[in-house]
Each structure stands twice: as structure tokens, then as C-alpha cells.
Specification:
This protein has helices spanning about 15-25, 30-40, 85-95, 110-120, and strands at about 5, 45-50, 55-65, 65-75, 100-110, 125-135, 140-145. The chain is α+β, with helices and mostly antiparallel strands. It has one domain (about 5-145): Gcn5-related N-acetyltransferase (GNAT) (Aminopeptidase, 3-Layer(aba) Sandwich). The protein is globular and about 35 Å long.
Length: about 170
């Protein structure tokens, strides 16, 4: 499998919306992704491709010196292959190049797989937002990566995957 990570474009929106819809019970509307690409100067949006197919995406917001991970997803057919980790690593490294010193995110309490991935990156659970998710009143777990450092991030040693140098 050859993975390619690149900046999200307007042409990616249909594939990204479809990915978001199969990944989440509260998907973003198309206009939100369009806004991220055209009007939100804080947005840093990436897609992961395998054989020309968008199989992963991430939207983050660089807010002063913090990277807020707004959404991240991998297509169900490609999960547990490290694509989400590679997207997160790519986003954090690129945000550090722009001055990010920390990172923050919310994750569903029931999404144990995502929480495990974030813990491997050094995120710590720091609280919760009660009944944050409208579809089922599930709590959001707040996770914070206090000190972004290349030395502390997981290494990406998989030679089979090519990542764009943007």
C-alpha cells in the first residue's frame, strides 16, 4: 500500500463528506469543509490517498500556538493500518513548523481506539464535556498534548508509505 498525504482541495470535498458521513453519527455539512478551505485562515486540512482514493482526512485549526484537531477520520476499509496516526503526525509536524507548541482535541468517550492513538502521541485526558454530542448525549473526553516536540512524537518508520513533503 502506498499512502500519499496532501493538502485538502475543493475537489476533495465530495469524497471527504462521504468519508465523514460513514465515520461519524454527526457528520459535518459540506459547507463546513468548504469554509475550512476557502475562508478559515486557521484551518490546516489534509487528506490521505491510497491509489488515488481519499481514505483519510484531518482538519485542524492553528490557534496562535496550539493545534486544535477538529476532526480526523479513516475510511472503515483502511482502519487499523496506521493511516490515522500518519495523518495526525503529519498535521502536528506541519503545525510545529508554524509555531504550534501544544495540541488539543475532543473525542467521544466510547471511541476507545481513537483515545488509544492519542495517548500514544502523548495526549493526556484532562477533563470532559458532559453530554457534548447531540445525537446521544455522550460525553466528550478532552485531551491535551502540553508540549509538542519532534523527540516525543511517535516515529514513522514504515517505508511502504510515501508522504508528500509540503
Amino acid at each position: 500500500m502506498s499512502l500519499y498525504i496532501r493538502k485538502m482541495t475543493l475537489e476533495d470535498i465530495p469524497a471527504v463528506v462521504a468519508l465523514d458521513q460513514i465515520s461519524f453519527s454527526l457528520p459535518w455539512p459540506e459547507r463546513s469543509f468548504r469554509y475550512e478551505l476557502t475562508d478559515n485562515s486557521a484551518s490546516r486540512s489534509w487528506v490521505a490517498e491510497v491509489d488515488g482514493r481519499v481514505v483519510g482526512m484531518v482538519v485542524g485549526w492553528l490557534l496562535v500556538d496550539e493545534m486544535h484537531i477538529a476532526t480526523i477520520a479513516t475510511h472503515p476499509d483502511y482502519r487499523r493500518q496506521g493511516i490515522g496516526s500518519k495523518l495526525l503526525l503529519h498535521t502536528l509536524l506541519k503545525s510545529m513548523d508554524e509555531g504550534a507548541q501544544s495540541s488539543f482535541l475532543e473525542v467521544r468517550e466510547s471511541n476507545v481506539a481513537a483515545q488509544e492513538m492519542y495517548l500514544k502521541f502523548g495526549y493526556e485526558k484532562m477533563g470532559r464535556r458532559k453530554r457534548y454530542y447531540r445525537d446521544n448525549d455522550e460525553d466528550a473526553i478532552l485531551m491535551y498534548l502540553k508540549s509538542l516536540s519532534r523527540d516525543r512524537l511517535p516515529r514513522d518508520d514504515s517505508p511502504a508509505m510515501d508522504t508528500e513533503q509540503v
